[in-house]
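Much of what follows relies on a compact textual record of a protein's fold. A complete example follows; check for yourself that the lines match position by position.
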Amino acid sequence: MVRTAEAPLALGGIGMRWVLADAWTVARRNLAHIRYMPEKLADVTIQPVMFVLLFAYVFGSAMAMGGAEYRQFLMPGIFVQSVIFAAVGIMGAIVGDMEKGVMDRFRSLPMARASVLIGHALSTLLEGALGLAVMIGCGLLIGWRIHAGVGATVGGIGLLLLVGFALGWIGIFVALFLRTVEAVQGVGFVVIFPLTFLANTFVPTQGFPAWLRAVADWNPTSAFVAAARRLFGGAGATPAVGPWPLQHPIEASLLWCAAIVVVFLPLAVWRFRRTLAQ
């Protein structure tokens, strides 16, 4: 059977193998660029390290945590912020490929449309794993410690990677509406910063005004951070009083990730098809 651009999606198991093989080819192509452009990893390595140093040493001395060590509270929030920033990286990669005409080249090849997006998601996931390793090493250097067993620690790392993978699909979907890399930076600043700061990422939400605390507590970022703190055995994992997502952060995080992938993966593929057809 002749392999066409749409065939892999309609051939059952054989088609799925084609999709995954094509996706891995795209992911390898994206990762190969890092050798020549290591600055691509700045948003998941250098930038989070700057936040660690800023909050741990500049603001940390003024943070009263009720006897708890602020760095134990801080680092899981930095981990989540790092994987959220990876969504900006995937947006830049998608828009950059569209600007350079790479997407037009993919359209002419006998490959599934979905494999292009899946390949970008996989490469971003691997880049996020590298950035997370850098963050964990940085945290250990400044005095953060893991107070949990091996299973919980592995679960915490896995959950963070799952969050990054899920949010990457939102980044892909949004990127397909943008035209320039400059627009990506603007969207990232307007959306990502409020998403990470209007949560329990850096400080407990108990001190927020009532209306703002309600928004912050139901922010998915707060559930992701609380889940990471619980799995790594950190301070402030579960507040004494709070909504269901903060009382059950691991379950809430898994539900958020599943909902995001179920909604935004097909939306991204749909938008990608429309973009290529224009």
Residues 7-277 form one domain.
